[in-house]
């Protein structure tokens, strides 16, 4: 089936569909990052030319790709510290540093359309967007799609798992690798999501009767919960990958 790839700048009427799509495509706790709450609205307001939509012939948005431009010196040390840092840098006016890199932030696919390799189309669209703007790299703080099945395995170990053909074990990392991306490093504190005990019970759909570490649905690592402080903190690691743009 043929789909149309367009930016929000070119198809502003599609913007209204993005909020519901985000809520449908992510686990509840992922939509409660304080940094995202503050900066995410700026993406379509300030940077519509960097936000991608994939729509069908009925003009239904079935997938979206979010990116920001930023400056990167090309070194491992110069990468944004986290997903949150990339979002902040990309939505904060650049001072004396012209952007030279496009950073992916998220790809969201409507659940009923998954399994059609739409993520590959979006990543290809992001690569084309970077090239169109004259950027030398597309970088991505990748959230490995199967890591939630292995929440006790350190991310540093998980990203080194490979299949017999040498490609990454993780399907989402494999999408990037097949398009030429390489692993740069793990971002250990890519997203930090705090909440009360009640918040986390609602977001996870679980009862959390005492303090401790909990494995919750769709989380990449355990949630650390304190009843004494009435606080749970989820610190998610991601892995930086780079696409070189010729």
Compact description:
This protein is α+β, with helices and mostly antiparallel strands and 246 residues long. 25% of the residues lie in helices and 28% in strands.
Overview of the molecule:
This protein folds into two domains: 4-188 and 238-244, Gcn5-related N-acetyltransferase (GNAT) (Aminopeptidase); 193-233, no CATH class. Helices cover 25% and strands 28% of the residues. It is built from eight helices and nine strands. It has helices spanning 18-25, 34-39, 42-46, 83-90, 118-132, 155-158, 171-178, 197-204, and strands spanning 4-7, 51-55, 61-70, 101-109, 137-142, 182-195, 212-214, 223-226, 231-244. Strands 1, 2, 3, 4, 5, 6, 7, 8 and 9 form a nine-stranded mixed beta sheet that branches. The two termini are 29 Å apart.
Biggest pleated sheet: 9 strands, mixed
Give the helix proportion (percent range).
25-40%
| Element order: H for helix, E for strand | EHHHEEHEHEHHEHEEE
Report the total helices.
Answer: 8
Radius of gyration: 18 Å
CATH architecture of the largest domain: 3-Layer(aba) Sandwich
Protein name: Transferase
GO molecular function: transferase activity
Organism: Thermosporothrix sp. COM3
Keywords: Transferase
Top keywords for this entry?
246 residues; alpha+beta; Aminopeptidase; 2 domains; nine-stranded mixed beta sheet; 8 helices; 28% strand; Acyl_CoA_acyltransferase; transferase activity
Layout of strands and helices, then pairs:
Layout: E1 4-7, H1 18-25, H2 34-39, H3 42-46, E2 51-55, E3 61-70, H4 83-90, E4 101-109, H5 118-132, E5 137-142, H6 155-158, H7 171-178, E6 182-195, H8 197-204, E7 212-214, E8 223-226, E9 231-244
Parallel strand pairs: 4-5
Antiparallel strand pairs: 1-2, 2-3, 3-4, 5-9, 6-9, 7-8, 8-9
């Amino acid at each position: 089936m043929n789909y149309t790839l367009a930016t929000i700048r070119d198809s502003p009427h599609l913007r209204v569909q993005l909020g519901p799509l985000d809520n449908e495509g992510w686990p509840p706790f992922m939509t409660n990052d304080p940094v995202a709450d503050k900066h995410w609205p700026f993406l379509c307001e300030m940077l519509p030319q960097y936000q991608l939509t994939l729509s069908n012939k009925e003009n239904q948005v079935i997938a979206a790709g979010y990116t920001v431009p930023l400056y990167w010196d090309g070194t491992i040390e110069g990468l944004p510290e986290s997903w949150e840092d990339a979002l902040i840098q990309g939505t904060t006016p650049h001072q004396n540093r012209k952007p030279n890199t496009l950073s992916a932030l998220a790809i969201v696919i409507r659940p009923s359309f998954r399994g059609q390799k739409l993520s590959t189309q979006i990543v290809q669209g992001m690569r084309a967007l970077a090239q169109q703007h004259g950027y030398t790299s597309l970088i991505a703080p990748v959230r490995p799609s199967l890591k939630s099945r292995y929440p006790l395995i350190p991310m540093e170990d998980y990203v080194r798992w490979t299949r017999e053909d040498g490609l990454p074990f993780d399907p989402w990392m494999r999408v990037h690798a097949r398009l030429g991306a390489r692993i740069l490093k793990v971002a250990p504190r890519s997203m930090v999501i705090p909440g009360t005990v009640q918040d986390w019970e609602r977001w996870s759909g679980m009862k959390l009767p005492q303090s401790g570490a909990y494995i919750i649905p769709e989380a990449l690592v355990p949630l650390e919960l304190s009843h004494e402080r009435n606080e749970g903190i989820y610190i998610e690691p991601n892995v930086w990958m780079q696409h070189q743009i010729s």
